[in-house]
Amino acid sequence: MASERMTKIVAKDVESNRRRGGDLRTLLSPANAGATAGFMGVLTLEPGEVVTEHYHPYSEEFLYLVSGELLARVDGEPVVLSAGEALHLKINVRHRLENHGAEPAFLVFQLGPLAPRPELGHVDTEPLPGQEAV
Asked: d(Cα 134, Cα 117) in Å, to the nearest integer?
């Protein structure tokens, strides 16, 4: 549902992006909601899944873990997140998310400001799942 004043998105209706690992769904963005200051979404990581290391050269990232547990590697330093905890990642900070628990981890994320172009928003620093290092 979109109007001049608002956009409502249903998470299950958004296509999953598994490029960096996990089930990531961008819910509100410039493309689907006309957002101009950033974007938000949700991520589900099953036990044993990871989101490969990357950083954002233009955006801060805000993570809120709704359920489960995660290990975030922030510039290589391990940071344990439990349900109900939030993590703020500044611009250019490398990060990787890992689920070493027995339950799925579900988190909400938001990034802003936007990169000048979408393809400039992420810089991968390790091979993506299923790809060889170049």
From this structure: 24
